[in-house]
Structures are given as C-alpha cells and as structure tokens.
Q: What sequence folds into this?
C-alpha cells in the first residue's frame, strides 16, 4: 500500500499538472494542496472509505476527468477490483445506466494497465447473502401501499431486483453498499431518499461519525450546498445533539 503523500502526488501529476491548474487558477491550486490534501488525512474516516465515497460521487456525477487517478488510489488502499466492479453495478440502479457504462469505459483501461484478471471480477450470479424476510416484507408492503396502484412494475422491480438481489450480492458488504448509496444520493442532491438509506447504513455498521465525515468529505467533491442539505437530514436521522 502506497503512502498517502505519494498517492496525492500521483493525483496531482495526473490531473493537476496536465490541466495547468497552477497557471489558470493558482488559488484553486492552493486549496488543492492545502484543505483538500488535509481532508484525506483526517482520521474520522479510513482512507479506503474515502476512496469509496469519492468514486461513488464521481460516478454519480459522471465526472470522468478524475476517475482514473481515484481508481488507482482506491486499488492501492484496500479496495479490490471486485468491489469496484460491484460498485459500478450497484450505482447503475441509483445514478443511471449510462453513468455506470461511462465509468466502465474508464475502469476497463485502469484494470488493463494494472493487469487485473477476469478471476478478480465477481460472477454475474453468485450465491446471495442472507435476507431478513420480515424486514423486507415490511419494506415492500409500505412501498406497495404508496405506489402499487400507480406503478406496480416499479414496486415489483424494487423488491425483486433491488432488495432481493442487488443488495444481497457478496461483492460489496452491506455497510459499503450503504456508504456508496448515501454518497451517490448526496452527490446528486437527492435528499428525499436519504433518511431510509441512512438508517439502513447504520443497521449495517456505518457509525454516526463515519456518516458525518463522509458528508464533510463530499463537500469538496459535490459542493457545499449538497453537503449542507444532507447534514440537516443526517442530524435528524442520526439524532445527534
């Protein structure tokens, strides 16, 4: 695992120098070397998780310019090729198919350069994780009561594909699925769904501190307004003082 300093230097070389950041926007260059670099050193969220949060945000917003270097950073800090594959598949359902396909184009090139082999990629139909039938039936019933009459196909796919299949795939832990889902929702300003997924993430092992730090991290990548909007909901959901 490479140190944070060398990774941030590689990130700067790949993105910043090629774009002439120091010549076009020296103040932005200062903030990149200062607050943004410091952000990645904060202890409240592991470096691996920061990579997951950042990748989810970039994929959600289809920001391909930074994706290659952050993919490398993730691979060098504990995120496996299988987890990246699983992340892209998962996010297709939350940020759209074309965003996922766009990410695959970039990821393919990174995987080729790093010699990722097919056996490191998850199978299409692996044995699924355990399902809490009672909780899922309760969730499905609630959604059906809300939307079943006007969009029965939507409620069907939500149950059969999203929660009985996608969320049970073993290529990501439930906790990591929650983390990237929350990150994608915040990136796209979709706060209406945040309370449900924040509660789910807590049940799956995401701590209050990690959730709050994820929002702080995202402020630099998806903007302060999106992060602040998420914080108000986070405070209510996590019942922080």
A:
């Amino acid at each position: 695992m490479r140190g944070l300093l060398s990774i941030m230097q590689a990130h700067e070389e790949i993105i910043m120098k090629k774009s002439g950041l120091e010549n076009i926007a020296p103040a932005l260059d200062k903030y990149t070397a200062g607050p943004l670099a410091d952000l990645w050193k904060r202890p409240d969220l592991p470096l691996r998780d920061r990579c997951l949060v950042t990748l989810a945000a970039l994929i959600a917003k289809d920001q391909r310019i930074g994706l290659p270097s952050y993919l490398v950073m993730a691979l060098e800090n504990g995120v496996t090729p299988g987890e990246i594959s699983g992340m892209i598949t998962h996010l297709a359902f939350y940020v759209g198919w074309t965003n996922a396909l766009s990410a695959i184009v970039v990821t393919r090139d990174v995987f080729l350069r790093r010699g990722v082999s097919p056996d490191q990629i998850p199978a299409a139909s692996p044995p699924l994780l355990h399902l809490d039938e009672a909780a899922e039936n309760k969730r499905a019933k609630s959604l059906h009561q809300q939307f079943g009459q006007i969009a029965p196909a939507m409620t069907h796919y939500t149950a059969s594909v999203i929660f009985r299949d996608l969320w049970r795939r073993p290529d990501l832990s439930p906790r990591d699925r929650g983390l990237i889902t929350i990150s994608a929702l915040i990136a796209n300003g979709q706060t209406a769904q945040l309370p449900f997924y924040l509660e789910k993430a807590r049940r799956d092992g995401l701590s209050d501190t990690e959730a709050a730090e994820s929002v702080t991290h995202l402020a630099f990548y998806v903007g302060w307004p999106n992060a602040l909007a998420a914080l108000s909901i986070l405070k209510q959901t996590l019942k922080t003082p």
Remarks:
- The chain has a mean pLDDT of 92.
- The longest helix spans residues 97-114.
- The two ends are 37 Å apart (CA to CA).
- Residues 213 and 233 are 14 Å apart (CA to CA).
